[in-house]
Automatic annotation (TrEMBL):
This is Dihydroorotase. Catalyzes the reversible cyclization of carbamoyl aspartate to dihydroorotate. Zn(2+) 1 binds at residues 13, 15, 99, 247. InterPro entries: Amidohydro-rel (IPR006680), DHOdimr (IPR004721), Dihydroorotase_CS (IPR002195), Metal_Hydrolase (IPR032466). Homodimer. The active site is at residue 247. Its cofactor is Zn(2+).
Amino acid sequence: MKTLTLRRPDDWHLHLRDGAVLEGVIGDTSRHFARAIIMPNLVPPVVTTTDARAYRERILAALPKGDRFEPLMTLYLTEHTDPDDVEEGRKSGLITAVKLYPAGATTNSHGGVRNIDKAMPVLERMAKIGLPLCVHGEVTTPEVDVFDREAVFIETVLDPLRKRLPDLKITMEHVTTADGIDYIRSSGGNLAGSITTHHLIINRNAILVGGIRPHYYCLPVAKRENHRLALRAAATSGDARFFLGTDSAPHVDPLKECACGCAGIYTSPNTMSCLAHVFEEENALDRLEAFASLNGPVWYGLAPNDETITLEKRVEPVKFPDKRETGAGPVTVFDPMFPLHWDVVEKR
Ligand SMILES: NC(=O)N[C@@H](CC(=O)O)C(=O)O
Ligand SMILES: [Zn+2]
Ligand SMILES: [Zn+2]
């Protein structure tokens, strides 16, 4: 039987929500992952270190008994964010990154940044203290086609920002295009990219062919096949600038299956099985550890985990629940549309 042991992975982009959904979903991450960068787009968002400290406590309180898991907290950047509060959060060890949502770009982002000039004092302070900025890299201009929003963001927002503040460390989150991959590869430094599980597996056909399939809708929206292939090449290359950020984003089914469904795909339960499948297909099982467990810690200045997990390839497909039941309703689990044979069998 084939087995694969790697250092315990981390998830560098995760939505855990709050309340009953948090309680229902957290075990799906803490079962396999040691740490995760927790996205701050709650309602209302996590904007101050006081908010982040309280949210961290709620996450820890929701953990299944016996699970060891460290939530790495982020602040939701607004035009009113106080640089001193951010610096204090960093110094106390509470804050791992600050998150930029262009206003209106995605779920709960209406309070995000409209005019980046207004956020410059905070960004300058972050550059000075070495605190990374995580960006949802899409423009929201109505004239720009939804499939082009990442490429246009790179050209009109990200590249100018990097020229203005070359010392600012930026994580381009959930890269979905070959343009994004090329931009990161060609950058001189201070830029890295997280890649989701689902963007390695689906292209835009999954959303639209044979009927409209809301459980494959996320933002940035999945692109053409050539982009998926570019993401696969980057993720499996071993290049330290690319690492896993699942962007697992639970929404209860009624909010997905309706006339104006939410963006977000819930991949936490089967992410490691999906990734082992993808990396095996690419003849790169030996690079899964770099992608899921090593490159992220280096970028965020943390040590890799000492513990390990072991995956085993089974003859029979591994069963995952179709839905995760939560106190707020069911959340559909990502279906990769092929059988999964890799299973996490051991955690040390
Ligand atoms: N990825 C998504 O489609 N949705 C995320 C927000 C985000 O990461 O953009 C969410 O919070 O639901
Ligand atoms: Zn996003
Ligand atoms: Zn996200």
